[in-house]
Amino acid sequence: MISDRAESPDFSLVLGGPLFQLLRRAHLSDDALLLQRRRIVVISLLAWLPLAVLAAVGGQLLGGDVAVPFLRDVDVHVKFLVAMPLLIAAELVVHQRMRSLALTFRERNLLSEVAAERFDAAVASAYRLRNSVTAEVVLIAIVYIVGVTIVWRQYVALDAATWYATPAVGGSNLTLAGVWYGYVSLPIFQFLLCRWYFRIFIWTRLLWQVSRIELNLVPTHPDRVGGLGFLAATAHAFVPLLMAHGTLLAGNLANQIFHAGASLTQFKLEILLLVILMVILVVGPLLVFAPQLAAARRTGLREYGTLAQRYVRDFDAKWVRGDVAADETLLGSGDIQSLADLGNSYSIVQDMRIVPVTKQAMFQLGAATLAPITPLLLTLMPLEELLQKLFGILF
């Protein structure tokens, strides 16, 4: 069993919870989240393969009397064969990118002895939430009550005869494949998705608690964020999760385009909104350090400004006003190099950011979300014409 003690040298946002323990007992995972391919194959096929078999039995696999047969439903294939594997793969990526988090706080001496105790308490609290049985039971309830009954039935399901449901007076009738889809496959997927939202809540809560601890930030640290630059790597850890969301939207839009006669240009707002929300979802938790970083920058500017003022006055008095020994020459003097070094240190403090993530990183996160949607550009123009326009822009 994975311990929830904060003294563990590794930190993990994903190694815990009833599902994780179930996967270990089923030999679909180990203590290091390996056996990833086995998990992806088993869970994805559990969600997708019965749908194909039941649709074939019901005559909705290739056509029949439905407008959207199973094999032509882009959304369902994308959801279970692309997005679901991404959600599962994201666990290992996040685990490996974040495992040194607690150790790095200590190695960089960001925590005093008192602060270290509060830090350990915050990590232990995060572990308790991560391992909570109650939390996962609540997530399952949310999936069936909200995700399936409300979101899928009323907002996501196509308003046409499909392989999973046929319109009827007062609603729709589920096919045999639709029963498995609505009560097994879709809940599995939505549970994996909601569990990621819960993990991000745990991550945000942990960062908020750590940001309330007085950290030993160094304004002249070359990472321009007082020594917290390693937190930027945690944002990149969520790239598979962002790609999964982009894939979900791409599958939904593909169905609207292929089966409802919509055009990709109709969904510009939805695409833009998703990109913005995903970047905020990942970068937002890091904003909790802004007050401490801003205070460290102000303190650094004041302290290094005072030090620089003292140094340049002495330098001016010695080398400009003529108060220098007769046998001392300017050429080769270390005073010039010290003045330059002091100026560089002050410049680093001036350039210090108040958020431990760069604009480039945010652009990369947005691009990761958008990438799965780009193939839908082929619905607007042929590939050859699209490439010609792309090369025209680049060259």
Walk me through the structure:
The protein has a domain at about 20-215. The chain contains 14 helices and two strands, in the order H-H-H-H-H-H-E-E-H-H-H-H-H-H-H-H. The chain has helices at about 20-25, 35-55, 75-100, 100-105, 115-130, 135-155, 175-210, 230-235, 240-260, 270-285, 290-320, 335-350, 360-370, 385-395; strands at about 165-170, 170-175. It has a two-stranded antiparallel ribbon with strand order 1-2.
Q: Could you name the ranges where pLDDT drops below 50 across 5 or more consecutive residues?
A: 1-8
Question: What Rg is obtained from the alpha carbons, in whole angstroms?
Answer: 28 Å
Tell me, briefly, the overall form: elongated
SSE pattern, N- to C-terminal = HHHHHHEEHHHHHHHH
> How many strand elements?
2
Q: Note the total helix count.
A: 14
Strand composition percent: under 5%
Within the largest sheet, what's the order of strands? 1-2
**Span from first to last CA?**
57 Å
Average pLDDT rating: 86
Helix-strand makeup class: mainly alpha
Main sheet specs: 2 strands, antiparallel
Summarize the model shown:
This protein has helices at 18-25, 36-57, 74-98, 101-107, 113-130, 133-156, 176-211, 232-237, 239-260, 268-283, 290-320, 334-350, 359-370, 383-394; strands at residues 165-168, 171-174. The chain is mainly α and 395 residues long.
Annotation keywords:
single chain; 2 strands; mainly alpha; two-stranded antiparallel sheet; elongated; 14 helices; 65% helix
What's the structural blueprint in terms of helices and strands?
Elements: H1 18-25, H2 36-57, H3 74-98, H4 101-107, H5 113-130, H6 133-156, E1 165-168, E2 171-174, H7 176-211, H8 232-237, H9 239-260, H10 268-283, H11 290-320, H12 334-350, H13 359-370, H14 383-394
Antiparallel strand pairs: 1-2
Helix pairs in contact: 2-3, 2-7, 3-7, 3-9, 5-7, 6-7, 9-10, 9-13, 10-13, 11-12
